[in-house]
Amino acid sequence: MRFAFALTVLMAVVFAANAIAQIPYNTSPDWLSLESTDYGTGCDFNDINNDGYLDLGVSNGNDMALAPNYIYISQNGILPHAASWISLDEQYSGHCEFGDVNADGFPEFMVCNYISSGWGPGSIQFYPNNNGVIATSPSWITANPLYSFRSSYGDADGDGDLDLAVATGEAYNNYDRYNQIYYNVGGNLQTTPGWQSADLDASYDVQFVDIENDGDLDVAFLTSGGRVKIYYNTNGVIATTPGWQTAANDNGNSFDFADLNGDGYVDMGVAFNSQLGGSGRFKIYYSANGVLHTTADWQSSTAGYGSEAVFSDVDNDGDFDMICGRWWGQVDIYINNAGVFSTSPSWSSSPSYNSVVENIIFGDVNNSGENITFKAFPGDGQRKLFYLGDRHLQSVESVVADGQTLPLSAYCYHLKNGWVSLATAPTQRVAIYYRNSNHKDLAVSNWDNATFIFTNASIDPTMVISMLPYNPPLSVPAGGSFSYTGILTSKFNQPQTPDVWLMLDVPGYGIYGPLMQFNNVPLGANQTISVPGIVQHVPGYAPLGVYEYIAYCGDYPSNPVNSYSFEFTVTAPLEKGGSDWAITPWFENEASAVPVETAMSNNYPNPFNAQTTITYALPNDSDVKLEIYNVLGQKVTTLVDAHQTAGYQSITWDANSYASGIYFYKLDIGDNVFTKRMTLLK
């Protein structure tokens, strides 16, 4: 067994240098909407048409003017400056949020109408999504008028679908109201509340969050002129009186929750606003084993009209930083250093572009750093809620519980807050596959002028690597083996020839390897190479414990461009087993001779549920279009429409959002047209 001490030291030096925190934003925004006079208030990212790119929704009006709402629909990773979608109705809208209420794979667009004309109560409504097309008129509206600046989705009763919590009241005129939850029944939100608080207040933010880490989503409300309140959830039943409150009254405008110090419990950050009195500070309340401190542990050195507080890992160091905004102020970023924050921001937007910040949301608009990843959890037959440890996700791709891929109707999720809630608790294991990015852009809704985006200015990775193990979490006897799919994706519009290598972090020893090294992998422009069924053998002498399995791509050994890892646990050894860290090939087939003729293989598996891979051969660089049709001859999606380099190409179709039945896939390559049939069985 050869231990690569020199390589270990070299790679440690490289990654220590790369670990220096960087805030990847210019101080002035790089993208602005053409619409600039509608008092933008809410904003949210989601992929409304399942084309693989995030779209941006903006709600407008606030308490200033009747205004329409907007959606900026991405064109292959480029957001148009002019709104692509405009609602027919005009309201005094507060915040907005996307959510897939009816579990058809296409998110609806929910908007809070804060007030109505004459300062009367408004309503909550959502615009339905019909197979990727948002209707311009709402299809759902609360039955009774109400004041609400913000609402948020969550699974209040633990049945695997999205319910809606509504923060109610209006502080400027002392209109205190009961906060509410509207339950989802069979994919439809009820128009009257199924829960309301026993106490009255004027709340301006709300969030579902598992404060105690007991597997239930509690609901938190942020009041103006009062206290932050948390109503605990016990087995799907939410108490009507708060079980926790801050010690002091203050005027809150926005809050967020994340585990800031890695203790397994979420902490709370709040933006307090001094317009109606109060501290006007940004504050953090840490948790002590699932109970938040009632007085703040940290506060900003400055005060004012605090309007937004949100957590995201902007410097990609593995912990969540605090991003804040003020009315007529700047965007500030407070960097998290192992759970400790400076009282002064580490980064602020330019004072020359002060704005009335209303909402801040993160997403990788052009997918430049997007990668598919997963988290796996053991099942106990009771827990149905799973936090992924990442926030501001690009998408949730699939959920596999006890070996079965779940239909969309069996779970719900929240991209910003990074949780997934199942209708039925797994008894053995659950694996959640999702897309995340380390290259997120920062979007701001602006009451004063245009909506704007600070584009992530760090160097775009030219490629990303990923590994998706089968049946995680992995527990492997010494002498056994495990399998996974290896994925290498180009993020560059020119061919590349990267190296790929595997390393191992051995318990009690450290870095060992490379287990596998493959040089000059032919990777075409914007190509994805997916290699299923890779088998990694674990020798009988392997020490027991938890291992980290690490893949790198780039220039071996000292210039990795990207890496990916997952853990596996080696248990008691087999009586007979392998004698080395042998592995089946990754990319040897990719480096074989270029095919001599154009061809398309049968998809595999077929029939399938709910993913299948289509492979084809290109003897020359070619323009390629691969489309899926239903039995009526209607095109349901386009998988490829690009110029690709010669070689063997493959692409996976995720049909989770499609009905069972017969489909046809049609491949156009120059003068060659191929059509084959496949069957989706759910």
Detailed description of the structure:
This protein has 682 residues and is mainly β. Among the domains are: 1-22 and 460-592, Immunoglobulin-like (Sandwich); 373-437, no CATH class; 599-680, Sandwich (Immunoglobulin-like). The strands form 17 sheets. Strands 18, 19, 20, 23, 24, 25, 26 and 29 form an 8-stranded antiparallel beta sheet that branches. A 5-stranded mixed beta sheet has the order 47-53-52-49-50, with helices on one face. Strand 56 and strand 57 (635-644) form a beta hairpin.
At a glance:
The protein has 682 residues and is mostly beta strands.
Question: What are its keywords?
Answer:
single chain, 682 residues, mainly beta, Immunoglobulin-like, 8-stranded antiparallel sheet, 5-stranded mixed sheet, globular, disordered N terminus
- Work out the helicity level: under 10%
**Could you tell me how far the N terminus lies from the C terminus, measured between alpha carbons in angstroms?**
46 Å
Strand content: over 45%
CATH superfamily of the domain at 1-22 and 460-592: Immunoglobulins
Structural classification: mainly beta
Largest sheet: 8 strands, antiparallel
Q: Which stretches of 5+ consecutive residues score pLDDT under 50?
A: 1-20
CATH architecture field of the domain at 1-22 and 460-592: Sandwich
Instruction: Provide the gyration radius in Å.
Output: 26 Å
What is the class of the domain at 1-22 and 460-592 in the CATH system?
A: Mainly Beta
> How many H/I helices?
1
What is the CATH topology assignment of the domain at 1-22 and 460-592?
A: Immunoglobulin-like
Number of strands: 60
Average pLDDT, to the nearest integer? 92
Shape: globular
